[in-house]
Specification:
The structure holds three protein chains of three kinds. By secondary structure, chain A is of the alpha/beta class. Chain A has a single domain, classed as Pyruvate-ferredoxin oxidoreductase, PFOR, domain III (Pyruvate-ferredoxin Oxidoreductase, domain 3), CATH 3.40.920. Chain A has seven helices and seven strands; from the N terminus they run βαβββαβαβααααβ. A seven-stranded mixed sheet of chain A has the order 2-3-1-4-5-6-7, sandwiched between helices. By secondary structure, chain B is α/β, with parallel strands linked by helices. In chain B, the strands form two sheets. A six-stranded mixed sheet of chain B has the order 6-8-7-10-11-12, with helices on both faces. In chain B, strands 1-2-4-3-9 form a five-stranded mixed sheet, sandwiched between helices. The radius of gyration of chain B is 21 Å and the shape is globular. The mean pLDDT of chain B is about 95. In chain B, α1 runs parallel beside α3 and α8 crosses α11. Chain C is built from eleven helices and eight strands. In chain C, strands 2-1-3-4-6-5-7-8 form an eight-stranded mixed sheet, with helices on both faces. Chain C has one domain: Rossmann fold (3-Layer(aba) Sandwich), CATH 3.40.50.970. By secondary structure, chain C is an alpha/beta fold. The longest helix of chain C has 25 residues. In chain C, α1 crosses α7 and α3 packs parallel to α5. Chains in contact: A-B, A-C, B-C. At the A-B interface, α1 and β2 of A face β5 and α8 of B. β2 of chain A pairs antiparallel with β5 of chain B, so a sheet runs across the interface.
């Protein structure tokens, strides 16, 4: 089973990201689960979500304590909580930032693989909006290899039927190709 | 969907409206939780004793005070006397399937009772999972159109007026018969559902090692977590099984007695409380009174206030128990904070 | 006349609370608490205020605060004020509830409290829908507004709760808007000096629910008044005093600022404008007749 946790702020689409991630994997025939973490979430507040992907039925009904993958939507979150809490050895963290992985690896003082992608800039370039929850799927596909671009496309169309799918897929593809790792 | 969406101002009014719709001959549905469910309790009894096949989703949630958005089962279980059939689901697929089944069970002419489809708030209600959505045609075939003509101007009746004590018994007896018929009706629907859609849900579902030393009893999301724990325990060589109580009302007492025979110990994981004891535990013990086998009973209250029921906690408590059973330590209800 | 200099420095609602950015309700509550002062106990049901209160063990309010079940607030307040009085306490009871809790589920209790003339100050913060649970329509959602349960725009008119409360013959009623803080505070001050059931209804814009800009909340509060969709008036001992606007703005200008009014047909716009004009004319007549 692969367990993933997303961190960001209210209004950035963190819950949807977990859903899209799970849906993309579901289209590949996997068993999935995705949940937002509930608090009294207001715009701008810290939020997180998590998802699981497995070959077998997932019976767990608890948050992801030991993620294999952590995704950070907003670097301001890094100062407020320890996003790497529980991350498994050999795990990966993907951060939406224009900084280089080595910078963040130092900042986070960690041994796990640090990946960065400037998803916000890619999103704005292709879709004119700074919403990265679809764009980040490209980077996730590259790092996790859990689903193909086709599955991502299906998931995005299902969830956002009115979106400009061409532009969004270009953005997702770019994020897949632009992921940097230390 | 050919339906009217009625916007009401309080949950008491919601159930009043459902009752009106049902007596008017239509199929009706609503959903609620916790405070709202409690607010409509007067009308829940009305729907139950009034024998109306209303279906309602109950997303279980802690009761205030203090305010909490997270799951506990007390809200649904506190309505166990209201005369509703109560089914606890543990996966999203089961929720969908149970809503379809609920109408068929409730509308059975020997039953005619309302049905609560209960599932844990957030852990199931707001969690996305793989679900197979059956096609409309097949569902229409399984669940034909419902109508009743209780309101009939050519044959006018007084509905729910007053009754003297000597006549009241007729109504209570009629009601008792419906309850007796329910278990059979549920089984019939279960078989039909499996034939049509390929999925089956036992009212008392077994999971894990056959003829286990220890049986865990749980409902809803707690049972789901227990399955994950049982997989680990059995892999490590222990002998543990789960009996998931899916149908809380009617309570599967006979099935329970049969399933218990041979087990040394049962662990009851309650996500509810009735003055300090778990509600599931009180039902289980009442049912087991008639059993010839006397397994030791170990009661736990878990997941209160929506505290996540972590599978590792269940693994640990079962292991601790195995040790205690060997040492023959007596037990009281244990409250788990984690 | 309340001036900026009259407002006390002490805060009773701290910043950093869990409200959304641009929340109109927190503005209203912060100001009115500054007028009421320390000898106040707040009673509030479920709603946005329950959230910006904070979660255990924190509190953003510097006053005793009793949470009540949804709709039960006025009944709880009735019991509370009786107890305080019988014990000789001077603490005033302030009931604060949203439009859902006041006009819908709690209405029977609010009406009963008014009929009993309970010595309570009741404030309704009206963001025109059940905002805390994700924007469902309430009886105070305006005609034409989109919410999750009225995706094509509400087809029913907003209940006129201040006038309904007036029919209960209570000693003081006022409408206010966060666009006019000094006026709001003056009305709270007036109310605090009267005994009996006092009702103040404040329009509090909600950026996420209304689809408006977070930095335009105060502007919206003013626009609502200047378009006459939210007339400001007081009903003091049965006498209505209407605040007449000097320049009336067409309602279209107000709707343009909010996504919830997107796509209103010209026909609907006209209907709404007519409705606003006739409601205002009614208040105008009442003012002239009663004074």
């Amino acid at each position: 089973m692969v367990e993933i946790r997303f961190h960001g702020r209210g209004g950035q689409g963190v819950a949807t990201a977990a859903e899209l991630f799970a849906r993309s994997a579901a289209y590949e025939g996997k068993s999935v689960q995705s949940t937002p973490v509930f608090g009294a979430e207001r715009r701008g507040a810290l939020v997180s979500s998590y998802a699981r992907v497995s070959q077998d039925m997932i019976w767990l009904r608890e948050p992801v304590d030991k993620p294999n993958i952590v995704v950070v939507f907003d670097t301001t979150v890094l100062k407020e909580i320890n996003v790497l809490d529980g991350i498994t050895p050999g795990g990966h963290i993907i951060i939406n930032t224009s900084k280089k992985p080595s910078e963040l690896k130092e900042q986070l003082k960690t041994k796990v693989e640090v990946h960065t992608v400037d998803a916000t800039r890619i999103a704005v370039d292709f879709t004119k909006r700074p919403m990265i929850n679809t764009v980040i799927l490209g980077a996730l596909s590259q790092v996790t290899k859990l689903f193909t671009m086709d599955s991502i496309k299906r998931a995005v169309i299902y969830r956002f039927p009115k979106t400009d799918i061409e532009a969004t897929m270009k953005a997702i593809d770019t994020s897949k190709k632009s992921v940097l790792v230390t | 969907m050919k339906a009217e969406y009625l916007k009401v101002e309080s949950e008491h009014s919601v159930m009043s409206a459902c009752i009106g719709a049902s007596i008017g001959g239509a199929r009706t549905f609503s959903a609620t939780s916790s405070q709202g469910l409690l607010l409509m309790q007067e009308m829940l009894f009305w729907a139950g004793y009034g024998k109306l096949p209303i279906v309602m989703a109950v997303v279980t949630r802690s009761i205030a005070p203090p305010w909490s958005m997270w799951s506990e089962h007390t809200d649904a279980l506190a309505q166990r006397d209201a005369g509703w059939i109560q089914i606890f689901c543990h996966t999203n697929q089961e929720v969908l399937d149970t809503v379809i089944q609920a109408y068929k069970i409730g509308e059975d002419k020997d039953v005619m009772l309302p049905v609560m489809v209960c599932f844990d708030g957030f852990e199931i209600s707001h969690t996305s999972e793989n679900v197979i959505i059956p096609d409309q045609e097949t569902v229409d075939e399984f669940l034909p159109r419902y109508e009743n003509d209780i309101i009939d101007t050519s044959n006018p009746k007084l509905i729910w007026n007053g009754v003297y004590p000597e006549d009241a018994f007729i109504f209570r007896e009629n009601y008792a018969k419906s309850m007796e018929n329910t278990q059979l009706a549920m089984e019939k629907v279960n078989i039909d559902f499996e034939k049509t859609f390929g999925r089956r849900y036992d009212q008392l579902e077994f999971y894990g090692r056959l003829n286990p030393d220890i049986i865990i009893l749980a409902m809803g999301a707690v049972a789901s977590s227990a399955k994950a724990a049982i997989d680990i325990l059995n892999r490590e060589g222990h002998s543990v099984g789960l009996l998931r109580v899916r149908s809380f009302r009617p309570f599967p007492s006979d099935n329970l007695i049969k399933a218990m025979s041979g087990t040394q110990a049962i662990v009851i994981l309650d996500r509810s409380m009735t003055f300090g004891k778990g509600i599931l535990a009180t039902e289980v013990k009442a049912a087991l009174y008639h059993s010839s086998s006397r397994p030791s009973i170990h009661e736990f209250i878990i997941g209160m206030g929506g505290n996540f029921v972590k599978h590792k906690v269940i693994v640990k408590l079962v292991k601790d128990l195995i040790f205690k059973i060997a040492a023959k330590t007596p037990s009281k209800t244990v409250w788990l904070k984690d | 006349m309340v001036t900026i200099r009259d407002i006390r420095d002490k805060e009773f609602l701290l910043k950093g609370n869990a409200s959304c950015s641009g929340c109109g309700a927190t503005l209203a509550i912060r100001w009115l608490l500054k007028v009421l002062g320390e000898e106040t106990v707040i009673v509030a049901p479920a709603g946005c205020i329950g959230v910006f209160q904070g979660m255990f063990p924190h509190s953003s309010f510097g006053l005793p605060f009793v949470d009540s079940a949804f709709g039960a607030q006025s009944s709880l307040a009735a019991g509370l004020i009786s107890a305080l009085k019988i014990r000789g306490k001077k603490t005033q009871v302030l009931t604060i509830a949203g439009d859902g809790g006041t006009a819908d589920i709690g209405f029977h209790a609010v009406s009963a409290a008014a009929e009993r003339n309970d010595d309570v100050l009741y404030v309704c913060y009206d963001n025109e829908a059940y905002m805390n649970t994700g924007v469902q329509r309430s009886g105070l959602t305006p005609f034409g507004a989109q919410t999750t349960t009225t995706p094509e725009g509400k087809t029913e008119w907003k209940k006129n709760l201040p006038l309904i409360m007036a029919a209960h013959k209570i000693p003081y009623i006022a409408t206010a808007s966060i666009g006019y803080p000094l006026d709001l505070m003056k009305k709270i001050e007036n109310a605090s000096k009267i005994k009996g059931f006092r009702y103040i209804h404040i329009l509090t814009p909600c950026p996420p629910g209304w689809g408006s800009d977070e930095n335009k909340t105060v502007e919206l509060g003013r626009l609502a008044v200047r378009t006459n969709i939210w007339p400001l008036f007081e009903i003091d001992k049965g006498k209505l005093k209407l605040h007449r606007v000097s320049s009336k703005v067409p309602i279209k200008k107000y709707f343009e600022t909010q996504k919830r009014f997107q796509g209103l047909s010209d026909k609907k716009l006209q209907l709404i404008q007519e409705n606003i004009d006739s409601d205002y004319a009614y208040l105008d007549e009442l003012d002239k007749t009663l004074n």
